[in-house]
Design a protein that fits this description.
The chain is α/β, with parallel strands linked by helices. Helix 3 crosses helix 6. The chain is globular, with a radius of gyration of 17 Å.
Length: 237
């Protein structure tokens, strides 16, 4: 499949507690950045990188996202929606729920991430390496968030968000590629995180690493929101 036919699952179902009080009445995807909802900027970026299909994994106030963005045609995208249901399923459980809409392989993108990189190169690396999962990593050195990946000689040695070591100079960049089989083994409706899957794959030497060199932007925090606001306004000027 080409990058245009490969869907991207956007994890947009969280409660966004770090952005309160903004997110008490709207989901994080609809938070205004540079005059528009964040999701508008995210979809425009994905379209510019060749992607055309997205599945929004939504939970908290997800109906508002579907109401405002519909089928995605205004952005040249095909949008579909997968709802968690009565309970939040976690990032992994949400992907398991969305499998019928995603097909055999797909990108996974965090719903608060703005990642201006080459998505075609990421997909090509996934296919060349041939492992069932791939994590993009960035040499962060603790600059924009806490580094959580030990990456050496082109491979991920260790990944842990809680138990960090001095060798962790890289960070999970926020974009992955996976085969559906990785999630299909889990029961539908189970609550689990994507990080659980990534650690399990790593333990089996089944998680590829692909280093990227463009810093990430995010709207999961107030400082991150301000940084992206500045970036987008500068590019419009």
């Amino acid at each position: 499949m080409s990058v245009a036919s490969t869907p991207v699952a956007i994890l947009a179902g969280g409660l966004a507690t770090r952005l309160r009080p903004i997110t008490e009445k709207i989901p994080k995807s609809l938070v205004t950045v540079a005059g528009e909802p964040f999701l508008a900027h995210q979809l425009r970026l994905l379209h510019s990188r060749g992607l055309r299909r997205a599945v929004l994994c939504v939970g908290y106030l997800g109906e508002m996202i579907e109401r405002d963005f519909g089928d995605g045609s205004a952005f040249g995208m095909e949008l579909r929606y997968s709802f968690d249901g009565p309970k939040l399923l976690g990032t992994g459980g949400a992907l398991r729920q969305a499998l019928p809409l995603l097909g055999e392989e797909f990108f996974v993108l965090y719903g608060d991430s703005y990642l201006p990189i080459d998505y075609v190169a990421v997909l090509e690396a996934f296919r060349v390496i041939g492992k069932p999962g791939l994590m993009t990593v960035f040499r962060n050195e603790g600059a924009w968030d806490t580094s959580n990946v030990h990456f050496a000689e082109g491979r991920i040695v260790r990944y842990d968000k809680r138990d960090r070591t001095p060798e962790m100079r890289h960070i999970d960049y926020g974009l992955g590629v996976f085969r559906a089989s990785v999630f299909a083994e889990r029961p539908e409706g189970e609550i689990f995180d994507l990080a659980d899957i990534q650690r399990e794959l790593l333990a089996k030497d089944a998680l590829a690493g692909h280093e990227v060199f463009q810093r990430f932007y995010e709207v999961g925090s107030h400082p991150g929101l301000a940084e992206l606001e500045a970036l987008l306004r500068s590019t419009k000027a």
